[in-house]
């Protein structure tokens, strides 16, 4: 058997634009790793994220350098030890899971002991905008059961109220992307309480987590940018009520499973999230998200088109991956 690997960069147009507190974009740039071992092939996708100092070029270079050190498919635990968490390791790790499933004929779900993985309701993201534009976006999306609302700091009280008016029956979670401060936290929290918001993601900048210990949190607060791997959990206890696990932060499904287990033992509410990518990036996360309290795997829904075959979305219901896609 001969082992080989390749790395490809793909651009996928976003439907409209995707706007958060740190900026906007109209394309999703993803990196795909393909591992070949004789007749078997495995694929993994990652999304480099500038917030964590990543670039597409840098991630590609890191992946190529890592793969050159292996004469065959690396052991996933050895890979986890050899590479830091992040997008590059994620793409290799997920490709390894897929390759192992194809080679053994045993699905990733079966390997994980997931009996009959089920379809899940995913949040649907509303981009940051004016209160009026977000009210209209909420009205258009009001048939969806769970909305995730991007916030930006100043004006968030009006945005939260506007979204609730636009979608009076949808469940709502909000994502401040580190844009709040200790000074406006209480007022924004009150607005969330009044709107029936169920979860607030990363209100304060990462590194200021300790402040949350001293602030009232009638709506649960979820760590995103403050959390990457299982070893981060210790300093979050008492500051956060929930965590958002993303494969591009953990550096793959292998570490994400470890993180989930540790978080559950500590009593955190679980959210499984994503960057804006295609179904290939979401597929392993759908398995990770089985029985999680919140699921935010709407990346393909935000694209103008998805890869084929892709995940099956029926409204906000996303089905587990078929083997032809991944796993």
How are the SSEs placed, and which strands pair?
Elements: E1 3-20, E2 23-37, E3 40-46, H1 56-67, H2 76-82, H3 87-104, H4 108-111, E4 120-121, E5 124-126, H5 131-140, E6 146-150, H6 156-166, E7 171-175, H7 185-195, E8 199-201, E9 221-223, E10 242-245, H8 247-250, H9 253-265, E11 269-272, H10 279-288, E12 294-295, E13 313-314, E14 317-318
Parallel strand pairs: 5-6, 6-7, 7-8, 8-9, 9-10, 10-11, 11-12
Antiparallel strand pairs: 1-2, 2-3, 4-14, 13-14
Compact summary:
This protein is of the alpha/beta class. The protein is built from 10 helices and 14 strands. It has helices at 56-67, 76-82, 87-104, 108-111, 131-140, 156-166, 185-195, 247-250, 253-265, 279-288, and strands at residues 3-20, 23-37, 40-46, 120-121, 124-126, 146-150, 171-175, 199-201, 221-223, 242-245, 269-272, 294-295, 313-314, 317-318.
CATH superfamily of the largest domain: Enolase-like C-terminal domain
Shape: globular
Please count the beta strands (DSSP E, at least 2 residues each). Answer: 14
CATH class call of the largest domain: Alpha Beta
Q: What proportion of the residues is helical, as a percent range? A: 25-40%
Low-confidence stretches: none
CATH topological fold name of the largest domain: TIM Barrel
Transmembrane segments: 265-289
Family: Belongs to the mandelate racemase/muconate lactonizing enzyme family.
Protein name: Dipeptide epimerase
Keywords: Isomerase, Magnesium, Membrane, Metal-binding, Transmembrane, Transmembrane helix
Tell me about this structure.
The structure is a single chain. The longest helix is centred in the N-terminal third of the chain and has 18 residues. The strands form 3 sheets. The chain has an 8-stranded parallel β-sheet with strand order 5-6-7-8-9-10-11-12. The protein has a 3-stranded antiparallel β-sheet with strand order 1-2-3. β5, α5 and β6 form a beta-alpha-beta unit. The protein is built from 10 helices and 14 strands. It folds into 2 domains: 103 residues, Enolase-like, domain 1, CATH 3.30.390; 199 residues, TIM Barrel. It is of the alpha/beta class and 327 residues long. α6 runs parallel beside α7. It is an enzyme of class 5 (isomerase).
């Amino acid at each position: 058997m001969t082992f080989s690997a390749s790395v490809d960069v793909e651009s996928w147009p976003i439907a409209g634009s995707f706007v958060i507190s740190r900026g906007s974009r109209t394309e999703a740039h993803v990196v795909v790793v393909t591992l070949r071992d004789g007749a078997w092939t495995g694929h993994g996708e990652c999304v480099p994220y500038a917030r964590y100092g990543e670039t597409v070029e840098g991630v590609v270079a890191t992946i190529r350098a890592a793969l050159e050190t292996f004469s065959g498919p690396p052991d996933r635990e050895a890979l986890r030890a050899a590479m830091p968490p992040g997008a590059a390791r994620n793409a290799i790790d997920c490709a390894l899971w897929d390759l192992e499933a194809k080679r053994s004929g045993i699905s990733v779900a079966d390997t994980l002991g997931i009996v009959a993985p089920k379809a899940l309701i995913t949040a649907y993201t509303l981009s940051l905008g004016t209160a009026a534009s977000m009210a209209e976006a909420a009205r258009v999306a009001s048939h969806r059961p769970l909305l995730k609302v991007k916030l930006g700091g100043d004006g968030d009280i009006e945005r939260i109220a506007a979204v609730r008016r636009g979608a009076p029956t949808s469940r709502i979670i909000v994502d401040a992307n580190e844009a709040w401060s200790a000074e406006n936290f209480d007022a924004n929290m009150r607005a969330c309480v009044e709107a029936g918001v169920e979860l607030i993601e990363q209100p304060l900048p990462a590194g200021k987590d300790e402040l949350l210990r001293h602030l009232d949190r009638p709506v649960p607060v979820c760590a995103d940018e403050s959390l990457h791997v299982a070893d981060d959990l210790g300093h979050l206890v008492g500051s956060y009520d929930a965590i958002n696990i993303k494969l591009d932060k953990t550096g793959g499904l292998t570490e994400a499973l470890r993180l989930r287990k540790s978080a559950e033992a500590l009593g955190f509410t679980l959210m499984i999230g994503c960057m804006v990518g295609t179904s290939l990036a979401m597929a392993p996360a759908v398995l990770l998200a089985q029985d999680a309290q919140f699921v935010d795997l709407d990346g393909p829904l935000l694209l103008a088109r998805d890869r084929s075959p892709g995940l099956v979305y029926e409204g906000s219901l996303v089905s587990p991956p078929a083997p032809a896609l991944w796993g």
